[in-house]
Design brief:
It is built from 27 helices and no strands. It is an all-alpha fold. It has 3 domains: 126 residues, Serine Threonine Protein Phosphatase 5, Tetratricopeptide repeat (Alpha Horseshoe); 159 residues, Alpha Horseshoe (Serine Threonine Protein Phosphatase 5, Tetratricopeptide repeat); 173 residues, no CATH class. The radius of gyration is 30 Å and the shape is elongated. The relative contact order is 0.03.
Length: 508
Amino acid sequence: MDKKHKNEDRKIISFIPDGEFYYKKGLKSMQRERFDEAHKYLKRAVELSPNDPRILMQFGILVMEEGEFEEAYEYLTAAHGLDPEEEDIIFYLAEVHAHLGLLRDAKIYAEKYIALAPDGPLADDSMEIIDFAEQEESFSLDEDMPDSEVYFLQEKARKLMESGSFPEAIRILESIIVDYPDFWAAYNNLALAYFYIGEIEHAKELLYDVLEKNKGNLHALCNLAVFYYYEKDKEKLNSMLELLLKIKPYQFEHRFKLGATFALVGKHEEGFNWLRSLKKKGFEGDAGYYFWLSHSAYFSGHEDIAKEAYEMLTQLDPEKAGFEPWKNVAPSAARSDAYEQDRDFLISKILNQYRSERLLGYYLLGKSAHKQELISHPEYIDVDKLTVIEQLFLAHSLDYEFTLSDQFDHLFDRAIQTTDLLYEKHQPLTKQGTHLFQMWFTLCEVALLRSYHFRNPAALAAAADYMFRSSRYTDTTKTSIAKEYGISVPTLTKYVEQLMEFLPHFKS
């Protein structure tokens, strides 16, 4: 290799982009209004130079402009810790606290900026924050609001709960209530965390404690209603709902909590009324708000509003697309008296001790508007504990695409085709229809365990239908059933004989 090439290689090797390099590229991208590009560069700059307050501040400003106020708070707080007297950092801390509604702290930082830079370029903006905070303080009903550090500890705990990290969330919330024994929001979240890990009695005791010390705490009352609902304690639930129906909250937060609680426990009309009232008053809801508004609207008969709300939900959270409560629900099966829409019926099947009953529950989930609610509940379905057959029926209801790679996959696919044909004939399910399907899943379970081939789905559906109807109606004929399913009488007879082998009392 000649000398020239050696020098060029040395130059290439010596250039390693650092935080300053990406910081400058990020600033240029911001000047050109290429904000996605700026985000990428500044994020990389933070990764390479996590102790540079300028870089942390600039990335904090960018994510604040993107509306990610909690994330912006973390970066700006870190920058402030590294350079506590930097005026610009102090101003943007004031701004991010104002965005988060932590006006007391916003005012403190804005006043500090004015003290450090009374003629600074951001002095007028600081005065606006101070004026706004003082106006809001005169109307504030919450004089005991904890400082921003506690607020963010709680937000951190809430995010941990959303990700399923309940032990860590519990540790944070326990520490908060030790230092702030009157911060009731932490108690309520702690109760929810204990509830989700199965310590239900401990969760309820926390809420009883809140209500003893802070009578009428709406969040505690609503959380207790949810606990009673999941425990199926109808007496206590009804008593609590009687109380909640009398409450007429003024604050948006309380109206949202009350409406979402009513929607969750099945009081859809009441939930819809409260959630809809927020929209009429100009409330700008988050994804959770539009989720419950959509569900309560749909189940109370306001389908257009439900679809409008769900569209807003998917704009805020695109991952929710395809999980609409009406997805895969046939118009006729959407009737409120259809068993597919009976939440208690579905839960009784999913939690049944007999596998054939659970298979029926998993199948009907795919036809129900309650599907997302039930599969997301932490206590109802533990996929790891399901048998392979149960997992397959659940996957079918969740619209998984199957790869037919072996013989069992093919026979299961034909079992599903048979079940779908029966459902098409009998949906929406009446009480009698559920009895037919209970019989069918008893047969289907045994047939799958014996690796039966399900070669003719139409004939099998007809055979199951004939066996059920003929046991109840003397005028049922093979000719009429065969015609209904488009098969011959001999074919029907053949498959009736095959299915008879799977009846429990025919087992050897």
